[in-house]
Design brief:
Largest interface: A-B, 19 and 23 residues
Order of helices and strands of chain B: EEEEEEEEEEE
Largest sheet of chain B: 7 strands, mixed
Distance between the termini of chain A: 40 Å
Helix content of chain A: under 10%
Number of helices of chain A: 0
Strand content of chain B: over 45%
Shape of chain B: globular
Oligomer: heterodimer
Largest sheet of chain A: 7 strands, mixed
Number of strands of chain A: 11
Structural class of chain B: mainly beta
Distance between the termini of chain B: 36 Å
Radius of gyration of chain B: 13 Å
Order of helices and strands of chain A: EEEEEEEEEEE
Strand content of chain A: over 45%
Chain lengths: 120, 108
């Protein structure tokens, strides 16, 4: 069955960096766009980044553009999110998600989430 | 960015009730609209895609409708397991995917 398992979350100070990883299994990873979506405590969902199946195309929300970098390793079925210059407003649970198609429309599988806390 | 406005923000219903949640887009998004269910402490789960298509494995008491700017999620005969927060999501602009603010469904 499809599984997405995030790791790498934790407590960091403002301005610091963190790298999230997502291990995928149960499907052909290289066939799917992947995305990161986050949820601040007690708040709604915010899409932050997409990466195409080959990794050639990467898209970012304005809130993270220039600070976050999405990448993938299709040989190892892994998705990553490098987060630099973290701010308190980046505090959230970060979900690794699979796009059901190759065109970017619906997120049919989600990981359990990784909590990132940015606080001094 | 396309703004998605859900209403109500919360509701209370009894088991067996018909529950209606609406989602309004700030511009025409055709049928590029999905619905998700999120239970406390869990990841969201896809319920409905393309406004009205039921995701595999989702109970048939869930249905979606609408196009353009106005969309509806209906839960026919609310079950205890349906207590959750529901979110709509538009993908008209793939580079600016946005979610609604959520509707919390509680049991009366």
């Amino acid at each position: 069955q499809v599984q997405l398992v995030e790791s790498g979350g934790g407590l960091v100070k403002p301005g610091e960096s963190l790298r999230l990883s997502c291990a995928a299994s149960g499907f052909i990873f290289s066939d799917h766009y992947m995305a990161w979506i986050r949820q601040a405590p007690g708040k709604g969902l915010e899409w932050i980044s997409y990466i195409s199946s080959s990794g050639s195309y990467r898209y970012y929300a304005d809130s993270v553009k220039g600070r976050f970098t999405i990448s993938r390793d299709n040989a190892n079925n892994s998705l990553y999110l490098q987060m630099n210059s973290l701010r308190p407003e980046d505090t959230a649970v970060y979900f690794c998600t699979r796009d059901a198609t190759s065109g970017g429309d619906r997120f049919d599988y989600w990981g359990q989430g990784a909590l990132v806390t940015v606080s001094s | 960015d396309i703004q998605m406005t859900q209403s109500p923000s919360s509701l209370s219903a009894s088991v067996g009730d018909r529950v209606t949640i609406t989602c309004q887009a700030s511009q025409d998004i055709s049928n590029y609209l999905n619905w998700y269910q999120q239970k406390p402490g869990k990841a969201p789960k896809l319920l409905i895609y393309d406004a009205s298509s039921l995701e595999t494995g989702v109970p048939s008491r869930f249905s979606g409708s609408g196009s353009g700017t106005d969309f509806t999620l209906i839960i026919n005969s609310l079950q205890p397991d349906d207590v959750a927060t529901y979110y709509c999501q538009q993908y008209h602009n793939l580079l600016r995917i946005t979610f609604g603010g959520g509707t919390k469904v509680e049991r009366k």
